[in-house]
Design brief:
Structural class: alpha+beta
Strand content: 15-25%
Largest sheet: 4 strands, antiparallel
Helix content: 25-40%
Strand order of the largest sheet: 1-2-3-4
Number of strands: 4
Distance between the termini: 108 Å
Order of helices and strands: HHEHHEEEHH
Number of helices: 6
Length: 185
């Protein structure tokens, strides 16, 4: 008996075509769930690390930047620029991005233009206040109260624990005596 004769029933095209079609259908149905980066099989949500890049610049911080400030003063207020291009030495770019799971991605940029070593002007996206920024990156808490097993009437019918007059004593450890650190002089 040869191997070909053993596999002959499985090699029949009338059997292989439906099996191949069913397997392709099954794989294509799974691929939509597997291709989604948010969930795996619609059940497991993989952990994604928080990615924060750049300098956080808010309305309160930008209010301190005025034309006429020096480079060192701008660096003290806004921090080091994320992009300081040697081909555009009179331009500093501050870019901020945050990617946090469960929060929409955010990106803002501020560009400060210098004339010599003094701020000439600046361009900025719409910047949030500090309060708005903190609220925008705060994750909503999904605290779900477990359902009560007892109704209000059943809770009221429960006996009240008896009060005890027993005073709890503070725990006592071993009694230790140490020699004096300094001898009497």
């Amino acid at each position: 008996m040869t191997c070909r004769s053993l596999l002959n029933p499985f090699l029949n095209r009338s059997v292989l075509a439906p099996v191949a079609a069913l397997s392709l259908l099954a794989l294509s149905a799974c691929s939509t769930r597997l291709s989604s980066p948010e969930t795996l099989f619609g059940i497991i949500q993989p952990y994604q690390i928080d990615v924060v890049q750049g300098n956080v610049v808010t309305q309160e911080v930008m209010a301190q930047i005025q034309p006429g400030l020096g480079r060192n003063q701008v660096r003290e207020i806004l921090g080091s620029p994320l992009l300081a291009d040697p081909f555009h030495a009179d331009r500093w770019d501050y870019v901020f991005t945050i990617h946090r799971q469960g929060v929409p991605k955010q990106q803002r940029s501020v560009t400060v233009f210098f004339k010599g070593d003094v701020v000439e002007r600046f361009d900025a996206d719409k910047l949030p206040s500090e309060h708005e920024f903190v609220a925008s990156i705060d994750k909503p808490a999904d605290i779900k109260k477990p359902p009560a097993n007892l109704t209000e009437a059943q809770l009221a019918a429960l006996p009240v624990p008896a009060k005890t007059d027993e005073v709890r004593k503070a725990p006592q450890g071993a009694v230790r005596e140490y020699p004096p650190l300094e001898s009497g002089r």
